[in-house]
């Protein structure tokens, strides 16, 4: 029987620990306790099981063994991997499709409550695709852009339009290897076709199409989703927010939005500020409505509206355990089926809203962008009506301030101002060695590891080594809860060169860049760095690494693969879905070697699964230093840089006047 872990072993977050203890006291299961009770299948988790037809399932655990159809282990592993990548690409890209349809409706005045908030970004994006912008109303431009974006999903030939935003050399690499995506839906469908019984049986050939499918997400559907979200809801810029379960309020109607669709959450934000709804809440005995988010919906409304984040993926059940949540409103992705049964122990109402997602036993209120504000108000009234049913509550008094919202546009502005917006200072900082390199620490939580530990341990150790960290998704919320997303926080633990940059520019050592679809912002930053010059002519030359320390979803595999195809070294924590059992089956790591060594030869990027966090850190720094050397940059030396002028002035200001003058100008002549 698996060992039952303590609350401290389940999570490093004290708020989460309190709720895990409460769940144990109430005899209620959570993802944490279920992970202890459910031992993973060592054959399936290693990718050694095939169930793609009715002759199986076939489990390959011996040397030379094949499936009933003759499929070898490497073929089965490649098929399993591409199917997971296709599912992840479909999920993120379908989100992009919905955003494009919403943009079309807004452009035609058919979407209640929505407006085009960032006309400047609309014009910039449209111009990239040669859509006429001069002398045209924003709605006209948006209509044409929406049509272009909608077409990318069903397109059968050619190239997905956003791919032109990649470095020119990278585009040529994709064309050379025949992996430039044609249309999002076509690549996903072909992945499923190739892996049907009796089809593609060459693992390398299968995995090349995995690259193409993932690219249709990263440089297609996800990039479209980010663009449209910014155009409709505003391009993020730094705001002050809070994170953790302590953002729930005892005297207010608590509504938690959870999932991934900003069309829903943004409208609930608007409805929650309506005087009519506020009065309705007060009439019910509450002091108003307190809105917060879980998972990537949390990131969407956090970075644009400053709405607090109640937590990341593994805190969705814990929020309900407080007993203070009147309604958890969900749409798509990362929603646990366990929520409904858990909510029966409390008064919380689970409200599903998407035509694609229903939970048995939940209340379903169909969301429709054409009647968005009306439906959002209806949802909030449901929550308010439930306030009277609240029982005993236990809200952890734990929350942390943070500054989210570092879009690639704001980073450029931040480094150069309105008239000289540029990535030049970032490139120069890397070239001189003040910043050793860049790491993107992104992705999910996984209850098989200690909640938030891998994210935050890797982040903290890289910061000590002068590595600038950018984060999205649940990983960003993990760092937020530790205070790493504040300008003054953690600088005593940051390397001297990076500390100079943070103090001079006035930024946190960890930059929050949004939700999981916003990993495309990271691709854009890398492209801007290439175009700025001095760090090579393609993404694979930049001293940068991507890490998903606690990955668990198929979307993560799609993200990791499109980053590899873009030229990045990507490290996943935890177990590998294609690890095989080298101690039992000869050559069972063929696929695992190919997605590392094989993909690196073709694309300059590689995907590796590394269980130990300190090994993740070692490999990250080793890769960054290798790329620095290849560019002819100075070897990293933390002793070359000290405290910045800003920090020196702050220290001097604390001195008495005479000592300060002596330090600045020398002792006066006697």
Structure description:
The model has no long low-confidence stretch (mean pLDDT 93). By secondary structure, the chain is an alpha/beta fold. The termini are far apart. Helix 4 (73-107) packs antiparallel against helix 6, helix 4 runs parallel beside helix 9 and helix 9 crosses helix 21 (519-532). The strands form 4 sheets. Strands 6-5-4-7-8-9 form a 6-stranded parallel sheet. It has 4 domains: 7-59, no CATH class; 73-233, Substrate Binding Domain Of Dnak, Chain:A, Domain 2 (Up-down Bundle), CATH 1.20.1270; 241-400, Rossmann fold, CATH 3.40.50.2030; 407-574 and 610-639, Rossmann fold (3-Layer(aba) Sandwich). 48% of the residues lie in helices and 9% in strands. It is globular.
Number of strands: 16
**How many DSSP H or I helices?**
26
* Major beta sheet, strand line-up: 6-5-4-7-8-9
What count of domains describes the coordinates?
4
CATH architecture of the largest domain: 3-Layer(aba) Sandwich
Poorly predicted tracts of residues: none
Overall helicity: 40-55%
CATH secondary-structure class of the largest domain: Alpha Beta
Describe the global form.
Answer: globular
Note the gap between the termini. 81 Å
Would you tell me which CATH topology of the largest domain applies? Answer: Rossmann fold
Largest sheet: 6 strands, parallel
Structural class: alpha/beta
Strand content: 5-15%
